[in-house]
Design brief:
Layout (H helix, E strand, L loop, with lengths): L2 H85 L32 H23 L1
Subcellular location: Nucleus
Organism: Rhamnusium bicolor
Protein name: Breast cancer metastasis-suppressor 1-like protein
Length: 143
């Protein structure tokens, strides 16, 4: 091999090395872009999963809150119904009141007296009904 052939061979090999370095640079850049793209996809999926978990957690908290509020309302309504069933008898008459249908004679009273014609038990029942009605109105208008 003479000097010209060696120089030609050397130039060809240098050209081949440069081509390989160029291909290596392109492949390295392509790999970098692919990894960056994969990182973005992974980050997006992680944020999506976190948002979904947060949503589910908030949804469960809201459901639990509204369920407990509903159960409390049902409990209060059942309690009120139970209390009204105790006070209200069949046929639309007060169950525990045993007043006769006939009127009593009016009693003449002198002075500033308050005369109660009702028994204490009847007064307590009336007072309970008034309190419940006021509480119901307060809840209705308080919301």
């Amino acid at each position: 091999m003479d000097e010209g052939e060696c120089e030609t061979r050397r130039n060809a090999l240098l050209q081949h090395v440069q081509d390989l370095e160029s291909q290596f640079g392109l492949l390295r850049e392509q790999l970098y872009r692919e990894r960056m793209s994969q990182n973005i996809v992974n980050q997006y999926e992680a944020e999506e999963q976190a948002a979904l978990q947060n949503f589910e957690s908030e949804k469960n908290l809201a459901c639990d809150y509204y369920y407990s509020e509903l159960m409390e309302t049902i409990r209060r309504l059942e309690e009120d119904r139970h209390n009204s069933e105790i006070s209200w008898g069949e046929g639309g008459e007060w169950g525990s009141r045993s007043r006769s249908r006939s009127r009593r004679k009016a009693v003449t009273v002198s002075g500033p007296y308050i005369v109660y014609m009702l028994k204490p038990q009847d007064i307590l029942e009336d007072w309970t009904i008034i309190r419940k009605a006021l509480k119901k109105d307060a809840l209705t208008f308080g919301l």
